[in-house]
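Q: Could you write out the predicted structure for this multi-component system? I'm mainly interested in how the pieces pack against one another.
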Amino acid sequence: MNGQDLPGTERRDDVGPVLRKGVGIPASGWFDPRGRALGGFAFAVNRVTGLGLVVYLYLHLAVLSMLLRGESAWSGFLRLATNWLFLSLDVLLIFGILYHGLNGIRVALVGSGVVPDRQKALWWALGVIGTITLAFSALHIYGSR
Amino acid sequence: MATVRIREAVRRRSPRAPRSAGEWRTMTLTGLGLLVLVTVHMIANHFVVRSIGGLRDYQQVLAYIANPAIFTIESLFLLFVTVHAMLGLRGVLLDLDPGPRLRRWIDRGLAVLGLATLAYGYFLIGTLASRA
């Protein structure tokens, strides 16, 4: 059998949607969501949440520096941090932590070969756990007002 | 022929630098550690104290961080989160396919940033614990 006899060879040069599975990052970059399979989408969101959490780490250290300036500085910050907008940012933070953490579990399980062929099922299962945890956390945080 | 085409496509589309096994293992182990530590941190700082958002006032923060168990947990949390963040940033930056020289600068820069983060974080934790 030569190459011309293989099924679908006449369509190989057609332009169409391509699900990029297993051929690395598309030339347009890892943050390009177009035409991605679930794994590529999960990877891109994992990176975005990771970068967001790094930004938050330094923001958090800056905010905690107010504690060095004493009680009045911290009390002033608390008045600001307990408004609706700041509490919403807390919920966004919890989303980032949950997504990054739970997707990290999936990547570790798949990458270490424990469950190499169940990455989609894991994504959905951990997604359900994450959604329930996020809903509980949001209710708790908004309910504290 | 097809194999050559696929290899060429991978080479063209994947500027991601290969990760060493040690780096992947460190990332995974710090990540697993962080799952525990971040859970403790978030519960302790948002779900224990009865106040808006579960946030502590100044005296409560000092009493919290002066507890030896909490001090140890928060110190480990800072170490794990910094190592994990620097390795993650390195992965993102190396995906931009820098040359060998720039890559060395990225490694040095992230090492300095990580050490500075740890130094400032431990200074902050230590100062607050000593005020309690």
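A: Regarding packing and overall arrangement: Chain B touches chain A at residues 1-2, 6, 9-10, 12-16, 24, 28, 31-32, 34-35, 38, 42, 46-47, 50-55, 57-59, 61, 81-82, 85, 88-89, 92, 95, 117, 120-121, 124, 127-128 (CB under 8 Å).
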